[in-house]
Hints:
Helices cover 61% and strands 2% of the residues. It has helices spanning 17-30, 33-53, 73-91, 100-109, 116-124, 136-148, 157-167, 177-201, 221-238, 240-254, and strands at residues 174-176, 218-220. A two-stranded antiparallel ribbon has the order 1-2. The chain is mostly helical.
Amino acid sequence: xxxxxxxxxxxxxxxxxxxxxxxxxxxxxxxxxxxxxxxxxxxxxxxxxxxxxxxxxxxxxxxxxxxxxxxxxxxxxxxxxxxxxxxxxxxxxxxxxxxxxxxxxxxxxxxxxxxxxxxxxxxxxxxxxxxxxxxxxxxxxxxxxxxxxxxxxxxxxxxxxxxxxxxxxxxxxxxxxxxxxxxxxxxxxxxxxxxxxxxxxxxxxxxxxxxxxxxxxxxxxxxxxxxxxxxxxxxxxxxxxxxxxxxxxxxxxxx
Length: 255
């Protein structure tokens, strides 16, 4: 859910052009994620080794950083080229979609391990066509429904993962104040943006923001998810249904 104060029947929240662009980026990132993730990790390792080998003064010769003959320059460049071709093949497939294993590995990369049943439940939230995968149309619809939800009842576990990945533009597994501000300003305006930032990066009940770490402060997915769920419960409590249930509960307790 968007972490903001909202009333039923209030102004409609719109998805900005920049958000739509970032939403597409995250969709592309999640498609075949289970196949791409290990290749990306290996490409990162290769790049680090190549930088070390090519460092001025190295002379492209053996050194303590190179552990065996397979780590020579030519072999690394050949592997790098092969992996890049494999990545290009995956990303150019005519049909792009997110599978259960992609969702599970993506969640694991954010520090949250899930059972097969939990992953199936997550997919169910979005899989309107009931074909076992999530395409762009379903993905976009999921995001739009959650952004515009004012009841707190919209299934949102998949949305929270996606929203976090939208904020996390450098893909370091953490969300910074700067990254979040850039995305929220267009959707909420300054006042609501500052309230949302305070809830995410401050303590409970509006405690001051503790600006530590990169870009003025960072939070991980576990923290983001915890705050988001608290705010979703508040959103439901403020909805007409939530208020009615609360009144019924009070009356029942007073009997």
